[in-house]
C-alpha cells in the first residue's frame, strides 16, 4: 500500500509549502498530494480558494496576482509555492498528485505540464492529476493522452468504478469511510488503483490495508508508514 503525503507532510509543517514537500521527500513517501489553484497570472499550491486560512493575506486566490501572493506568509515564514517551484523541488524524485481545485485556463496548464515533461523535470509516470471535477479530468486526458488521471469523489456513488473506467482514469480517490470490499473488487477488476483520504489513525490504516487498497493519503506519512508495518 502506497503512502502519499497529503498537502506534503502537512501534520508537521505548514500545508502545501515547499517545507512540507521537502519533509515528505526526506521521509521517502511513495507520492505527494498537493492542491493547485489559479491565481491571476500563474498556478499556485494552496488548498482554499481564499488566502485567509493558510496565509496572512485576505481575498480570493483567483483575484490576486503572483507578486502579491509571494509577499504572504503561508506559515513559519514559508511562501505559497508556484506549480513550477513544486515541480523543480521534486525534480522527479517521487510521484506528484496534483489535485485541481479552482484551476482555470487549462490550456495554459497543459502547456506547462508538456514543457516540464519535455525538459525531464518530471516523467509521465510520476504525474497524476486528480479532481472532483470529472469534466476537467476528461478534457485534460483528451489533450494529453499519456496523462494519468484520478477521479475524486467524496462518497462513492453507485457504479462509480464503471464511471471511472469510462473516464479512462488510472485511479479512484475516495473518502476512507466509504470504501468496502465490493467496491475494491469492482474497481480492481476494472484495472483501477484505489487511493483513500485522509488516513492518519492506526485503525483506519489497518482496515484499508486489509481491504487491499493501493494507497492512502496521510498528513503524518512518517507515522503512517510505520503503522503499515504492524498491520
Ligand atoms: O486528494 C484527496 C483529498 O486531498 C481531497 O480533499 O479537501 O483535502 O483537498 P481535500
Ligand atoms: Ca487535496
From TrEMBL:
Instruction: Tell me the superkingdom of the source.
Output: Bacteria
Q: Name one GO biological process term.
A: lipid metabolic process
The record's annotation in Gene3D superfamilies points to:
Phosphatidylinositol (PI) phosphodiesterase
Family matches, as InterPro entries: GP_PDE_dom, PLC-like_Pdiesterase_TIM-brl
List the PROSITE patterns: GP_PDE
List the protein's name. Putative glycerophosphodiester phosphodiesterase
- Please give one Gene Ontology molecular function term for this protein: phosphoric diester hydrolase activity
Origin species, per record, is Pseudoalteromonas tunicata D2
Q: Where is the GP-PDE domain?
A: 1-228
Tell me the lineage of the source organism.
Bacteria, Pseudomonadati, Pseudomonadota, Gammaproteobacteria, Alteromonadales
Amino acid at each position: 500500500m502506497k503512502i502519499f503525503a497529503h498537502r506534503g507532510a502537512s501534520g508537521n509543517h505548514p500545508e502545501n509549502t515547499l517545507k512540507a514537500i521537502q519533509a515528505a521527500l526526506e521521509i521517502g513517501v511513495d507520492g505527494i498530494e498537493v492542491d493547485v489553484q489559479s491565481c491571476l497570472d500563474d498556478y499556485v499550491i494552496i488548498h482554499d480558494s481564499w488566502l485567509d486560512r493558510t496565509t496572512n493575506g485576505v481575498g480570493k486566490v483567483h483575484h490576486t496576482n503572483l507578486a502579491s501572493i509571494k509577499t504572504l506568509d503561508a506559515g513559519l515564514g514559508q511562501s505559497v509555492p508556484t506549480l513550477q517551484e513544486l515541480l523543480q523541488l521534486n525534480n522527479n524524485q517521487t510521484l506528484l498528485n496534483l489535485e485541481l481545485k479552482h484551476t482555470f485556463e487549462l490550456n495554459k496548464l497543459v502547456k506547462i505540464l508538456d514543457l516540464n515533461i519535455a525538459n525531464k523535470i518530471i516523467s509521465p509516470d510520476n504525474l497524476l492529476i486528480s479532481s472532483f471535477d470529472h469534466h476537467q479530468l476528461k478534457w485534460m486526458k483528451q489533450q494529453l493522452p499519456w496523462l494519468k488521471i484520478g477521479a475524486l469523489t467524496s462518497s462513492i456513488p453507485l457504479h462509480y468504478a464503471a464511471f471511472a473506467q469510462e473516464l479512462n482514469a488510472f485511479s479512484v480517490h475516495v473518502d476512507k469511510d466509504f470504501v468496502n470490499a465490493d467496491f475494491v473488487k469492482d474497481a480492481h477488476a476494472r484495472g483501477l488503483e484505489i487511493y483513500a483520504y485522509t488516513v492518519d489513525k492506526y485503525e483506519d490504516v489497518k482496515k484499508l490495508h486489509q481491504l487491499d487498497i493501493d494507497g492512502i493519503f496521510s498528513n503524518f506519512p512518517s507515522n503512517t508508514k510505520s503503522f503499515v508495518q504492524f498491520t
